Each structure stands twice: as structure tokens, then as C-alpha cells.
Amino acid sequence: MANDRPGAGLTALVTGASFGIGVDLATCFAQGGYDVIVTARSLKALEDVAERLHRDHGVKATPVAQDLGAIGGGKALLDALAARELAVDVLVNNAGYGHAGSLTSAPIETTLGMIDLNCRALVELTQLLWDSMLAKRRGGVLNVASTAAFQPGPLMAVYYASKAFVLSFSEALWEEARGTGLRVSCLCPGPTASRFRERAGTGKTRLAQASPVMPSMPVAQEGYLGWRANKRVVVTGMRNRVLAQVAPMMPRSLVLRAVRQLQTPTHDA
Ligand SMILES: NC(=O)c1ccc[n+]([C@@H]2O[C@H](COP(=O)([O-])OP(=O)(O)OC[C@H]3O[C@@H](n4cnc5c(N)ncnc54)[C@H](OP(=O)(O)O)[C@@H]3O)[C@@H](O)[C@H]2O)c1
Known about the structure:
Distance between the termini: 55 Å
Number of helices: 10
Bound molecules: NADP nicotinamide-adenine-dinucleotide phosphate
Radius of gyration: 18 Å
Mean pLDDT: 96
Oligomer: single chain
């Protein structure tokens, strides 16, 4: 493999890289010559991903299992990497899940666990790695939010709010990184083929029935290339880009009613 690829000598840590968009994000970084550390809870799936990335792209690929929804999971992961003398140049915060339904339709553990994974672990990993990235003046952070970040989401309230947090946090860090050599981007996919829908239970909503679903590889490619270009926000797909521009400019009461309609299961509508 040619070692003049942009990531030669650098390592990207990709969370949620056992299934879905994270696998393709890890693939994009490996194609770019980055060594990769892939993490999630499912060790066997991570081992398969790592083996494939090493074989296909000639990079070092290390699987490390960790529950990032557990309090302190981010620190535990970084301690495990330090023990193996694995340094991180690029952090890809992709792991996340949603839950569709009214606020009390999920057990409180599911609701708080979503915040712990989507927000808490993402901040934990970012803060713990930030100073070493600044010192090296290279690398950076790619956070995965969602088009859900651009408006509140009745009937999926906590998920939408968690992604608004990720978007706001990422944009602020993009500015803080100005002139430091670090790149910070926030990837905002719309509906994408993965296991997300199954876990979130969004399959029966009007939104799911009405929206085109993008395959995960083009979503990951847009994210990787956007990050390489230090694009602050990367919304995937033309339709999603238009909606993300328009939603914040519309009257909130109208948007809230429209999203509620879209998040209503078709048999309840
Ligand atoms: N698919 C969509 O329509 C869509 C749209 C917008 C945004 N997104 C965002 O894209 C990101 C990736 O989701 P996806 O669509 O690829 O869903 P997915 O197929 O369900 O993948 C989620 C990944 O997160 C990992 N994960 C889940 N819980 C975890 C935990 N407690 N600790 C560590 N890792 C955990 C999963 O692996 P394990 O189960 O092995 O832990 C898996 O690798 C998420 O942040 C999601 O919110 C998805």
C-alpha cells in the first residue's frame, strides 16, 4: 500500500464501529491510510471489521470492546489504549442510539442511557484527548449528530435534544480549534440504512415511511471528506441539506406540529 496517503502515521479511534455507519467511517479512514482503533460492545463484530480493514487497506486495525454508555466508559477505553501504547490522533464519536415514542414510553434507563452514550461519553472522550491533539497540532474530532439536531423532536424528544447538543458542542469546538491545526466536523445524516431504526423503533413512523434512506457508505464518505476539509457541519444528501436549512427559519409551533406528525406511527395517525 502507498504510504503517501493523508493518514499515514496517524491513528483514528472510531466509536460504534461494530455495525452501521461506524464501520464505513472506519473504512474511509483506513482507505485514507489511517491506522484505526474500532470500538463498541460487540467484540466478535469488531474483530471481523478490524481484520477486513487490515487486509484490504494495509493499516494497523485494533478492536477494543467497551460499553461507552457506562459511566466512566470513555476513560476506561482510553486507559485500555494507553496500556497498549496506542495513541489517538483523530476521534470519531459515532456510537449512539435513539428511542421513538412519548417521553415515558421507554424505561428511564433507556432514556438516560441515550444521554450517557450520545452526549456524555462523546464529551468525555473529546475532553480527555483534546489537549494531546492540541499539543500535536494535528488530527481532530468528527462527531456524528443527525438532521434531528436542527429542530426539537416531539415523540422522540430526548434523541433530538441529544443530537442538538452534539451539533452545538461540535460547532463551538470547531471555532475553538481555529488556528490550532485541528479539524472539527459534525456529520448530520438523515435516515440511513443501519441497525439504528430497529433499536430505536422508528420503523412505523410516517417519517420512516416517507423518507428515502441513504446507504451508509456515501454517508460515511461525506463525513470523512467533510472532516478532511474541516467543514464545520456536514449534512448528507441534498434533500436533508435543504430541510436542515429551512427548519430553523420556520415558526417553531409549525415545526413542532410537523415533526410530531412525522414521528407518529402510521397506525396511530
Ligand atoms: N441510521 C440513521 O438513520 C441515523 C441517522 C442520523 C444519525 N445517526 C447516528 O449515527 C450514529 C451511528 O448509528 P447507526 O445508524 O450506524 O446505528 P447502528 O447500526 O445501531 O450502530 C450503532 C453503533 O453504536 C454502537 N453502540 C451502541 N451502544 C453502545 C454502547 N453502549 N457502547 C459502545 N458502543 C455502542 C453499536 O455497537 P454495539 O451494539 O456492538 O455496542 C454500533 O456499532 C449514531 O450516533 C446515530 O444516532 C443515524
